[in-house]
Amino acid sequence: MTSETQAFRVAALYRFTRFSDPAALRGPLAKACCAVGVKGTLLLAREGINGTIAGTDAAIESVLAHIRALPGCGDLVPKSAWAEAMPFHRMKVRLKKEIVTLGLPDLDPVANAGTYVEPADWNALITDPDVVVIDTRNDYEVAIGAFARAVDPKTSSFSAFPDWFRDYRAGLEEERGPGAPPLKVAMYCTGGIRCEKSTAFLKSEGIEEVFHLKGGILDYLEQVPEPESLWRGECFVFDERVAVGHGLSPGTHALCRACRRPISPEERASPLFVEGVACPACHDTRDEASKARYAERHRQVARARELGIAHVGATRDSGET
Questions:
Q1: pTM of this prediction?
Q2: Measuring CA to CA, which residue among 111, 113, 119 is closest to residue 79?
Q3: What is the CATH classification number for the domain harbouring 72?
Q4: Which of 124, 143, 223, 289 fits a 20 to 30 Å CA distance from 308?
């Protein structure tokens, strides 16, 4: 998909940097986005900026110019994709303690992240039997695709990763025994942001040889030819594409609007799948009142689509339009 056939550019971006007063940046950033019709979500924290926005190519470039004028963001390059329709309903600029929540806001990925590995060099690293390969994503993301040999932490949130790693490391070091060489760890995530923070965490725990995939899975899928790829399955993405494959081609998964997890074609064929209401993963966790609410919302969204209008809830704060 390119700008020649798609109307909207979807830009995913992040930058770890130091903002002394992120609250002061919020209003001007929201204004810059709304002035050109850009929608999506941007998070601001003392450790930097993170988010995904969509708009026309010119509008996105306008917002990127504003962001690049912020401290430490001058060379920011987003990951871009294209969409036929606007994938977001509103613009939100939110203040957070962390731009990706690990529960350790004092980590400094700017100064202490691991070593970047280019996508072209990633296969050689992760096929080294002395390298422990760890997927830093959540369980529902790993379930639809992962690299060969990768360890799945089976965590439901990124904030669970530190405790998981400490337990995993203890077991691994006991298994390897005294006198074993230092751990050598390679980690990856969707676009790179979680790895910058998780590698900084591992280094704070005393692991010196820590590597992470530059640009994440998305850059790997875009740059490495499929015949040479060690990726298996699809990659979950946090926008209306839901999942992508090699070359960032559209995947086969859809999104459950109740639990926000990816659902395969086989799961959509299950009697436990009800469009907009529940999927096999969440069907038995929802009471009838919740399912009725989801069904009504789905009806309203479908009706709005028929009428050609956006189905948008009330705005919630001054950083949301």
A1: 0.86
A2: 119
A3: 3.30.70.100
A4: 289
Query: What 3-state DSSP class applies to 54?
Result: strand
Chain centroid to Cα 98, Å, comes to 14
Which residues lie closer than 8 Å to 112 by C-beta, 6 or more apart?
A: 200, 203, 204
Among candidate residues 36, 66, 95, the one where a domain is terminated = 95
Could you tell me if residue 65 is inside a domain?
yes
What does the block give as tokens for 107?
């980590």
> And the tokens for 21?
């007063």
Low-confidence ranges of the chain (pLDDT < 70): 1-5, 305, 308-321
- Which residues 6+ apart lie within 8 Å of 106 measured at CB? none
Residue 127 belongs to some domain of the structure: yes
Q: What is the C-alpha to C-alpha distance for residues 199 and 207, in angstroms, rounded to an integer? A: 9
pLDDT tens digits, residue range 188-231? 999 999 999 999 999 999 999 999 999 999 999 999 999 999 99
The helix (H) or strand (E) run that includes residue 109 is helix 109-112
Q: Does residue 35 sit in the same domain as residue 135?
A: no
Residue 289 domain boundaries: 253-307
Gap between the Cα atoms of 235 and 248, Å rounded: 9
- And the tokens for 150? 């990768």
Question: What residues contact residue 182 under an 8 Å CB cut-off, 6+ apart?
Answer: 207, 208, 209
Q: Is 256 a catalytic residue?
A: no
For residue 246 the two structure tokens come to 């090699």
Domain match, 211 and 257 both:
no
Question: Do 55 and 9 form a contact (C-beta atoms < 8 A)?
Answer: yes
Q: Same domain, yes or no, for 90 and 65? A: yes
Alpha-carbon torsion (273, 279, 285, 291), positive or negative: negative
Of 189, 256, 279, 282, the active-site residue reads 189
